[in-house]
């Protein structure tokens, strides 16, 4: 049985991050309990997010892997609790087994930080008739920030994303969105160069996820991740100017307000 659907919009939409992990780099697991996560989701939906991105495995630098059963235990109750919310639900996972179960529980989109490199993940998306978000990551979360290296970061990231997008679409995935993977196996300069070059990922829609990332601390001296929302907004507004179709954020309310004002200034 398929969940086939297609969603379109103009401008830059907001995806709200909903972590079901005890070790999130940003909120230290504050929304790990189901009730707190549902309340956070309710606030983001009321603010106007288009998608809630549910994740049960931290992908912060140095993060250790989580097994399938533990990840399912974290995400499935939350996805089920969100079924009556008027919003799309994305499952943020690297595991085809988790993606399949999450889609069966009511999720609508697969967000894969490994960029659909596992053929089984492509099959899950194609069989269920759902869109996929393809992200670039050099290495694995546990080691990705040890020694990031590229000859030409824009070209290499673009080539990988386009190759994976073509493969997914040819094998029946409904549609794809591309994410350059800010902070995933990149230095500060790599990240800035990619953000300045987002328009080069057209004609595919682009997702930018720079919320509360370490580069804000490096640029502005903000060591505590939860204090990096102003820098996050600045990065994401710049991304919107470059044509990003969606931004993935922790502080949905502030981002939506900023985007409304920014859009009004362009009229």
From TrEMBL:
SUPFAM superfamilies: Dihydropteroate synthetase-like. PROSITE patterns: DHPS_1, DHPS_2, PTERIN_BINDING. Residues 12-260 form the Pterin-binding domain. Pfam families: Pterin_bind. Keywords: Folate biosynthesis, Magnesium, Metal-binding, Transferase. Signal peptide: none annotated. It catalyses: (7,8-dihydropterin-6-yl)methyl diphosphate + 4-aminobenzoate = 7,8-dihydropteroate + diphosphate. CDD domains: DHPS. Pathway: Cofactor biosynthesis; tetrahydrofolate biosynthesis; 7,8-dihydrofolate from 2-amino-4-hydroxy-6-hydroxymethyl-7,8-dihydropteridine diphosphate and 4-aminobenzoate: step 1/2. Its cofactor is Mg(2+). Its EC number is 2.5.1.15. It comes from the Bacteria. Belongs to the DHPS family. PANTHER family: FOLATE SYNTHESIS PROTEINS, FOLIC ACID SYNTHESIS PROTEIN FOL1. Catalyzes the condensation of para-aminobenzoate (pABA) with 6-hydroxymethyl-7,8-dihydropterin diphosphate (DHPt-PP) to form 7,8-dihydropteroate (H2Pte), the immediate precursor of folate derivatives. This is Dihydropteroate synthase. It comes from Deinococcus roseus.
């Amino acid at each position: 049985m398929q969940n086939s659907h297609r969603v379109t919009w103009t401008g830059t939409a907001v995806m709200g991050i909903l972590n079901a992990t005890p070790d999130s780099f940003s909120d230290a697991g504050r929304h790990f309990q189901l009730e707190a996560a549902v309340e956070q989701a309710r606030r983001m939906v009321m603010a106007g997010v288009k998608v809630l991105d549910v994740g049960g495995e931290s992908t912060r630098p140095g993060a250790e892997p989580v097994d399938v059963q533990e990840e399912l235990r974290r995400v499935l109750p939350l996805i089920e609790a969100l079924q009556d919310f008027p919003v799309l639900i994305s499952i943020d996972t690297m595991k085809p087994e988790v993606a399949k179960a999450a889609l069966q529980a009511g999720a609508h989109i697969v967000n894969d930080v490994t960029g659909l490199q596992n053929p089984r993940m492509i099959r899950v998306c194609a069989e269920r008739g759902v869109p996929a978000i393809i992200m670039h990551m050099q290495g694995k979360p546990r080691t990705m920030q040890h020694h990031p290296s590229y000859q030409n970061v824009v070209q290499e990231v673009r080539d990988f994303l386009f190759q994976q997008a073509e493969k997914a679409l040819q094998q029946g995935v409904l549609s794809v969105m591309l994410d350059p993977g800010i902070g995933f196996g990149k230095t500060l300069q790599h990240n800035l160069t990619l953000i300045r070059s987002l328009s080069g990922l057209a004609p595919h829609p682009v997702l930018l996820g720079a919320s509360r990332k370490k580069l804000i601390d490096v640029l502005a001296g903000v060591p505590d991740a939860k204090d990096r929302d102003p820098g996050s907004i600045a990065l994401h507004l710049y991304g919107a100017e470059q044509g990003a179709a969606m931004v993935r954020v922790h502080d949905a309310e502030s981002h939506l307000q900023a985007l409304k004002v920014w859009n009004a200034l362009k009229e």
